[in-house]
């Protein structure tokens, strides 16, 4: 199962308009941020790269490389000031502001996401819910009334929402995405098991839950054959 | 926002017992597999690397590098035989078999996961549900009765479950993980917003939903400042 000369992962950007920071680095930035917020809550005022990496299982050298991207924040022998590092990471990630988010497809996953406090804590505010099921329209979930998709353009305009979460069934995903794009949404977090076609200016992050489970199976599988 | 000389992402493995294939490659393997299964459903018998990469937004060269890991499957000018490539990917990922999975923490997210057909299609079978809330024990969800955590060891032994999905609140995650590890579980898919400490032989994949939304915000943010 071992590959003697594995292909290296290139930085994510394929096209010219993508950021040079790889998506893997961005993922680690989020993890650092989460960990640092925990440490700040415990009153920790400076952290070392080792301390930060340890709980996350990320090697010291990788942490230092990643954080070098943020500029000269660390002090030799002292570490990084927790508050400054949090602020720099939030600015780099674009979460030093709040984002309005609309959600389309109000099933169990949507209900779970609406109760998930992590979004709010990171500045993501779900401002409106949409579903094409007439039977659901008007129902309230976590204080928000479910609206029909025909309301989408005016709600996006009125709230200034830039991001959308898509939790519809796979076969409805492209149509829902088209409506969101037409309404002016600029980024889609897609949970539907579907390959979406979007214009170049709209960003997409897809979460395929079966992929996550496959990654785990792979790690267990490889662990057991070595 | 651009980095003139971005750090490259090393292959994921930090320790000596990890596979050399990077986690990013494994993630792409899953995406190729999903796409190929779709193409096979449409009757496509051979595919080119370009065809495979296009819908996924992955460059041709990267697809060829990744698939080279599987051995010599492609034929110049003809492409890859769809069925053989699916079989090779399933074997490499460890999903050419079925996996029994237990789930701990039966809230909205768990209910969404239980209704998610993708797991079953990829050979993942959720065989038992656990919750520490006495009020939930005995309730049936998607045909499975919710059991108390004290039943875990015997159910894991009886079903031969190797994987677990953890959908408990963050503050209960470590305790639940400890019970699962003691019961013999070898891989954990963790949705709880918590950093888990696990013995080295137990594999962990964590899905932090706020991290996914942050990645999207980052892409939109960077797109807008260029």
How would you describe this structure to a colleague?
The structure is a homodimer of 226-residue chains. In chain A, the strands form two sheets. A seven-stranded mixed β-sheet of chain A has the order 5-6-4-3-7-8-9. The longest helix of chain A has 19 residues, at 23-41. Mean pLDDT of chain A is 84; it is low at 1-19. The first copy, chain A, has helices at residues 23-41, 49-56, 60-68, 82-93, 108-114, 117-121, 152-159, 173-182, 209-225; strands at 46-47, 80-81, 99-104, 124-130, 140-141, 144-147, 163-166, 187-190, 203-206. Chain A is globular and about 60 Å long. By secondary structure, chain A is of the alpha/beta class. At the A-B interface, helix 1, helix 3, helix 5, helix 6 and strand 8 of A face helix 1, helix 3, helix 5, helix 6 and strand 8 of B.
Key descriptive features of the protein:
homodimer; about 230 residues; alpha/beta; 7-stranded mixed beta sheet; 9 helices; 9 strands; about 15% strand; globular; disordered N terminus
């Amino acid at each position: 199962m071992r590959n003697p000369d594995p292909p290296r992962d290139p930085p994510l950007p394929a096209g010219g308009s993508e950021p040079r920071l790889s998506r893997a680095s961005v993922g680690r930035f989020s993890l650092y941020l989460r960990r640092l917020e925990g440490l700040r809550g415990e009153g920790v005022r400076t952290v070392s790269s080792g301390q930060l990496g340890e709980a996350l299982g990320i090697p010291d050298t990788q942490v230092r490389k990643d954080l070098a991207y943020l500029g000269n924040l660390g002090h030799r022998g002292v570490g990084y000031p927790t508050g400054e590092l949090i602020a720099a990471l939030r600015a780099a990630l674009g979460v030093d502001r709040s984002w309005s988010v609309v959600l389309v497809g109000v099933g169990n996953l949507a209900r779970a996401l609406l109760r998930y406090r992590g979004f709010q804590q990171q500045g993501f505010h779900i401002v409106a819910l949409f579903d094409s099921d007439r039977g659901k329209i008007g129902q309230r979930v976590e204080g928000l009334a479910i609206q029909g998709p025909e309301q989408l353009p005016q709600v996006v305009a009125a709230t200034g929402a830039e991001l959308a979460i898509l939790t519809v069934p796979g076969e409805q995903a492209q149509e829902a995405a088209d409506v969101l794009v037409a309404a002016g949404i600029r980024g889609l977090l897609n949970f539907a098991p579907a390959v979406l076609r979007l214009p170049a200016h709209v960003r997409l992050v897809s979460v395929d839950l079966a992929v996550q489970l496959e990654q785990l199976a792979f790690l267990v599988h490889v662990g057991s054959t070595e």
